[in-house]
Amino acid sequence: MRVRYAQRPFCYMALFACLLILLTASESLCDEPDVIVPAEPEAVLVFVGDVMLARNLPPHSPYNPEPLDHAYIFEPTAAILDVADIAFCNLESPISGRGKPLNKRYAFNAPPEAAKGLRIAGFDIVSLANNHCLDYGDVALEDTMTYLVSQGIHVAGICERAKPQVPVILEAHTIRVGYLAYMCPELYFGEVCKFSPGPALAMKERVVEDVRRLREHADIIVVSFHWGIEYTTRPTRAQQQLGRATIDAGAHIVAGHHPHVQQEPEQYAHGLILYSMGNFVFARYARPPARDTRIYRVTIKRGGIARAEYLPHRIVPDRWRPEPQSTRWKLVADSFTERKDAAMTSNHTFTAEGE
Question: 20 to 30 Å CA-CA from 224: which of 130, 147, 179, 274?
């Protein structure tokens, strides 16, 4: 009896051990493997203002005794532009060398090699919807588009007069980015009216319709406007109304140009309005305020904007090219709401030029 009694604790311990092993095994069978959630893809878009590669650019520089090519002009900024997933500018001059100038005060016509300079600079898409695209007639406009496409650069903002423009849709890290470009009707007059195709005109109803249609095909929508009053540092009421209506229609980014100087950006609803990005490359006669420029960098996700910032630059006399004035990017905004399907109403008040 004594021996049998002494073996009971051992039996209980063995039974407990077996149960523990069975429980551990069953738990390990029920454990689900760790699920790794992939990060949401992001892409970087870069925006600059007016680029004019025609007359009055310096043929020589004291820093470079050889005749300048167009790649030289973009040397200080090429690293930023080229590393972006998509880089955009407003091309303020035809690229042709052919054609007859229209009867206007300023008519520009850059040589064919300018297109290669834009490609080396890192640009992926340009707007031609401006008041200089037809400076040398339809022949020069056709040449411009041909030279740009041959360098792998996309063109936005040109269409047949009575037809809507065809948007440019580019993909970056699986995010579809759609581009539209327009010129305000106030800049459309004189001989340029007789040509078709030509710049798409920024009629509000047309812009809103184009943006809504593009929403079916793009995750992010960028709309470029050639608008405003030259050398004014505040947007007009018309700029603000059109810019906000464009965002309300579903666009994410409005990229503005024409005033040649900076107009401060606005974060509006889910979007960003760059009212005027100023000159980026322009002639030597550019006024001092028009020499301050910026590179805007906008990080996007499929659902909208994640972050917007800019790096100050200046068009430096003697070298006449944009050069960075800081190594630190300045934050515009890093908190954007998701785009809503329904048009949003605005309670914003604004102080505009002329009020």
Answer: 147
